[in-house]
C-alpha cells in the first residue's frame, strides 16, 4: 500500500513539474541574401504549448505587406506549434522582418528580427541571352487544315443550316398557298375514290359520278369557274372560251365530263381501260393546274 502511494506521489510530482515547464520559441530564416523573386523560408516553432491556444497574425498576414507570401502552413500538436512561411520579395533593396508576437495563455512571446538583402543579378546594359529569334517553319496544306478546319466546318454548317431554313420557309409558304391546298385536297379525294374499287366491281356509274363530282368541285375552287352549277354542255363551252385553263387541260376535262354523263345516265358504259385512263387524266390535270394559274398571273401582271 505504501509503495502504491509512493508511485502516485512521484507521478504527481512529474506532472506538476511538466505543467510548470515554460514555453520556448524558436525562429529561423533560410537566407539573409536573396535575388529578386527568389523563394525564401521563415520558420517559427514553439515547444511546451501544452495544448494551449496560440494567438498570432492570421494566415498569409504574418509578414510585412511587401513580402509576397507563397505558402503559409501551420502545424499544431499537443505540445508543439510550428509555422512555416514561404515567401518572395520582388523589389531590390534591404528589408526587415520585425519581431513577431505570439501570445500563449496571456503570455506574449516575440521572435528576433531578421535583415534580408535582395539583389538584382541583372544589371543595366546586360545582353538578354535567353530569348531566341522566331523560327519560321514551312507550312503545308495539312498544317493549314489543322489550324483552320474548325472555322471551315463551322462556316459550312452555318451555310447548310441557312439553306435548310430557306427551303423549309419556302416549302411552308408553298404549302400555305390556296392553289396548293386545293391540289393536295383533290389528290386525296381521288385516292379515296380509287380505294373504293368501283372499277374492279364493274360499277362504272358510281365511279364516274364520283370522278365528275371531284372534277367539278376542283374547277370551282382552283379556277373559280361556275362548274358546280352549269350543265355539262355549258361547262364544256365555258372551258373552251376561257383562257385561264390550257388547251391540254380543257380537252382532258371535257372528254371525262362527256363520258361521265353517258355513264351516269346509262347511255354508254366505257371500257375499264378507258375509265382508268380518265382517272389518270384527271389526276394529271389536277397536278398541272398550278401552271395554268401561274400563266394567268403573268398575263395579269403584263
UniProtKB/TrEMBL annotation:
Give the superkingdom in one word: Bacteria
InterPro entries per UniProt: BatD
Membrane-spanning regions, if any?
148-169
List UniProt keywords, sorted A-Z.
Membrane, Transmembrane, Transmembrane helix
Q: What is this protein called?
A: Oxygen tolerance
Q: Which organism is it from?
A: Cruoricaptor ignavus
Amino acid at each position: 500500500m505504501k509503495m502504491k502511494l509512493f508511485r502516485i506521489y512521484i507521478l504527481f510530482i512529474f506532472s506538476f513539474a511538466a505543467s510548470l515547464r515554460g514555453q520556448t520559441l524558436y525562429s529561423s530564416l533560410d537566407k539573409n541574401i536573396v535575388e529578386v523573386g527568389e523563394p525564401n523560408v521563415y520558420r517559427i516553432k514553439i515547444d511546451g504549448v501544452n495544448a494551449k491556444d496560440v494567438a498570432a497574425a492570421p494566415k498569409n498576414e504574418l509578414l510585412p505587406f511587401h513580402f509576397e507570401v507563397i505558402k503559409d502552413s501551420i502545424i499544431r500538436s499537443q505540445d508543439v506549434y510550428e509555422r512555416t512561411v514561404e515567401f518572395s520579395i520582388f523589389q531590390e533593396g534591404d528589408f526587415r522582418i520585425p519581431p513577431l508576437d505570439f501570445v500563449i495563455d496571456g503570455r506574449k512571446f516575440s521572435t528576433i528580427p531578421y535583415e534580408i538583402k535582395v539583389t538584382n543579378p541583372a544589371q543595366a546594359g546586360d545582353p538578354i541571352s535567353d530569348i531566341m529569334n522566331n523560327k519560321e517553319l514551312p507550312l503545308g496544306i495539312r498544317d493549314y487544315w489543322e489550324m483552320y478546319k474548325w472555322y471551315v466546318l463551322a462556316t459550312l454548317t452555318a451555310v447548310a443550316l441557312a439553306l435548310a431554313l430557306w427551303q423549309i420557309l419556302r416549302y411552308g409558304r408553298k404549302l400555305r398557298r390556296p392553289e396548293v391546298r386545293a391540289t393536295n385536297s383533290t389528290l386525296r379525294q381521288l385516292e379515296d375514290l380509287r380505294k373504293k374499287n368501283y372499277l374492279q366491281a364493274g360499277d362504272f356509274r358510281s365511279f364516274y359520278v364520283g370522278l365528275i363530282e371531284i372534277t367539278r368541285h376542283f374547277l370551282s375552287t382552283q379556277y373559280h369557274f361556275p362548274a358546280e352549277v352549269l350543265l355539262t354542255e355549258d361547262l364544256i363551252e365555258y372551258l373552251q372560251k376561257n383562257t385561264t385553263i390550257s388547251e391540254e387541260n380543257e380537252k382532258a376535262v371535257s372528254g371525262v365530263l362527256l363520258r361521265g354523263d353517258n355513264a351516269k345516265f346509262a347511255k354508254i358504259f366505257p371500257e375499264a381501260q378507258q375509265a382508268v385512263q380518265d382517272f389518270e387524266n384527271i389526276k394529271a390535270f389536277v397536278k398541272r393546274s398550278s401552271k395554268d394559274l401561274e400563266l394567268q398571273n403573268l398575263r395579269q401582271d403584263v
